[in-house]
Amino acid sequence: MHISDLAFLSTIFVLDIMKKHILTTTFTEFADDSELSGSDLELLKSARTAAKNAYAPYSKFHVGAALKLENGIVVIGNNQENAAYPSGLCAERVAIFSAGANYPDFAIDAIAICCITESANGKPFSPCGACRQVLGEYENRSKKPMRIILGGMRGSIYVINSLKDLLPLAFDGDLLKK
Question: Is 118 marked active-site?
Fold first, then answer.
């Protein structure tokens, strides 16, 4: 057998064990506020108010988050920038960490996130990767899905039923257990 024949056989073997997987994301899109349920609309309004109060003098990218705990309490957060950029924190993490510090025994039922920026054009913005990972940690911790409501000051609103639809292959703390 020639060496080039071995390379060809090796390639065929690798292709035989390789699998292609397809991930899908599911969310519901609403045209505007009028289509939301009362509790989702109230949560989005709280996120909008929080976004207006964000400290974003550098990026002008104002984000607010409002989360509803299973006990009905609403906790808000907004992005807090700093001239030393890595020292700031996103709205989602401000709200989640505040809820974790003040209400550690209550799961998050839903979180609404609103972004105010000139480039939004009525389209919702999705959380950054770090915020997705933190949301995933809290969803995993509570062992129940967390609804995510994404909207701006106007226009379309996306409702996602679980963080797994935003971060399907999340790093999970279970991977650290022996």
Answer: no
